Amino acid sequence: MGPERHPSALGALGQECWAEIWDIIGPQIEYVMAGKGSTWDEDRLVPVTRNGAREDVWWTYGYSPIEDEEGIRGVLVVCEDVMSEHLAKQALKQQTERLEQLFEQAPGLVAVLSGPDHVFELTNAAYRDMGGTEFS
Prior knowledge:
alpha+beta; Beta-Lactamase; 2 domains; 4 helices; two-stranded antiparallel sheet; 7 strands
């Protein structure tokens, strides 16, 4: 949470404590408070201010109602900063795209088959140009 909010956030009004992201989380909290159920977001960008600077941070979080005999009295927030996982997925995606480009541009005929039935998984442009198997 950063020193801007710890420990002052404890017991504070959400709209005041999280003013810079209230447009994102406010409707979700209102949804829960209105008795419509819980919410869940995975790997969602919610930029927050911490340690004196605005940061792009990816979160997995959920909101659930806190109820008693009088109804919904509050919202339980469970969240995890998943920034490192998000960045790792992005790096893997970029590497995979780069390898696919190199594979596609290879001048030799390349086909990747798998299993005992030799099912085509990948072919490159040179292979397909020579009349090789097309697949999607």
